[in-house]
Design a protein that fits this description.
Layout: E1 11-14, H1 26-29, E2 33-39, H2 43-50, E3 59-65, H3 73-84, E4 90-95, H4 97-109, H5 116-119, E5 121-122, E6 131-136, E7 148-153, E8 158-163, E9 171-174, H6 184-202, H7 209-231, H8 236-253, H9 260-270, H10 276-291, H11 296-305, H12 314-331, H13 348-356, H14 359-362, H15 371-380
Parallel strand pairs: 1-9, 2-3, 2-4, 4-6, 5-8, 6-9
Antiparallel strand pairs: 7-8
Helix pairs in contact: 6-7, 6-8, 6-10, 7-8, 9-10, 9-13, 10-12, 11-12, 13-15
The structure holds fe (ii) ion.
The site of fe (ii) ion (FE2) has 5 residues, from helix 6 and helix 10.
Length: 382
């Protein structure tokens, strides 16, 4: 068995209403200046929390996260500049993946001699002095437990990953009640993104038994509950299962990470500003069909976790699993074709070029993906 290093937050609090527990966190007790970066819909929740007695005599700076879509380098730089003067001892992100990613980078880069451009890539960050707490409000990125943050480079229109053990938060609070207000479309897209994290980790060239358990459990939880939460956003059990499944997906990201679905999705996000979960949802079935021959057994095991009970060969079981993902995606009214989101044949070579540059993920794919393969996968989805 290969060796592997698992990095996780020191404290993971999960449960309905668990955000209230945040006010008693030991990290806050020992800090005087606390910066909250908060998604707009959660502002009232955070204001309520801030009123709590435990925050008395502390300086609290509440920043509303206002960027739309993937945050860009310059947007983050502005955020950084605006908040450096406050010099927080703790940064707390409350929101979806983009909010958490920016909170993670703020904690790492506020009053740090390293510049943003110096830390893009894997392992360039020298450290983090500011404590970091993440509170997710969507069930998708798993950023609350992962070492990843993604920004959009507006000059190249490419998404760039900042990956570092120092971006793993010190603590995270997963409160399913905070995800109750998420609209059905976002529930579906973020849910499929989380599902793709688990599937791409399990079928990964570098899959590992320590991560397989998270991946399989995440696949099962998401496949059993996504449609329930899509149809009834107030189904707290389904919301809880999705949030847990998404956290399991996040735990897969650090040690194993994703592969070709995410790599082929980069151009759709960067160039066409297609939501991350949506582009992954469109790409995933076709990429899995392409990958299947490289490891039929693993793909069949994914299908089993998705609830497929069919008897047959590994290939047959795996294909039934892929069809189940398509059916789930359709039932959630997610578009199935690239043409439905404005992508035409003329741009496929450019999309493939962008994907080919995402070597940090492509190297994980169970089957080698050439530029021509990438174009063929996109073509099948027109
Ligand atoms: Fe993702």
């Amino acid at each position: 068995m290969n060796s592997i290093t698992l990095l996780q937050p020191q404290k993971i609090v999960f449960g309905e209403g668990s955000m209230k527990e945040l006010s008693k966190d030991a990290i806050l007790e020992h800090a005087n200046r606390i910066l909250f970066l908060v998604a707009t819909p959660l502002l009232s929740n955070v204001r309520e929390l801030v009123k709590n007695i435990h925050f008395k005599n502390k300086e609290i700076h509440l920043v509303e996260y206002k960027f739309l879509g993937e945050p860009t380098f310059s947007q983050f730089e502005t955020l950084l500049k605006e908040n450096e003067g406050f010099n927080p001892e703790v940064v707390i992100g409350v929101g979806g993946g983009s909010v958490l990613d920016c909170a993670k980078l703020l904690a790492a880069l506020i009053n740090n001699s390293q510049k943003l451009t110096e830390v893009v890539g894997i392992g360039f960050l020298n450290g983090r002095k500011i404590k970091l707490i993440c509170v997710p409000t969507t069930s998708g990125t798993g950023s609350e437990v992962s070492p990843n943050a993604i920004l959009l480079n507006e000059e190249t229109q490419a998404k760039s990953g900042i990956i570092s053990p120092y971006l793993v938060p010190d603590a995270c609070y997963l409160d399913p009640l905070l995800t109750m207000g998420l609209p059905p479309k976002l529930t579906a897209e973020t849910g499929i993104d989380a599902l793709s994290h688990c599937i791409e980790a399990y079928t990964n060239k570098f899959a590992h038994p320590t991560v397989d358990v998270y991946a399989l459990q995440g696949i099962q939880l998401i496949s059993e509950n996504l449609l329930k939460a899509y149809n009834n956003g107030n189904d707290v059990e389904a919301r809880s299962a999705l949030l847990l499944g998404s956290m399991y997906g996040g735990l897969c990201l650090g040690p194993v990470n994703t592969s070709a679905v995410h790599a082929l999705s980069y151009g759709l996000g960067g160039k066409f500003h297609i939501a991350h979960g949506l582009s992954n949802a469109i790409l995933m079935p076709e990429v899995l069909r392409f990958n299947l021959s490289a490891n039929p057994k693993r793909h069949a095991e994914v299908a089993r976790a998705l609830g497929i009970t069919l008897d047959g060969t590994d290939e047959e079981i795996a294909l039934a699993g892929i069809e189940k993902i398509e059916a789930l995606s359709k039932a959630c009214n997610i578009p199935q074709r690239l043409t439905q989101i404005g992508v035409t044949e003329a741009v496929l070579p450019e999309l493939a070029d962008i994907a080919m540059n995402v070597t940090r993920l492509l190297k994980n794919n169970p089957r080698e993906v050439t530029r021509e393969d990438a174009i063929n996968i996109y073509k099948k989805l027109l």
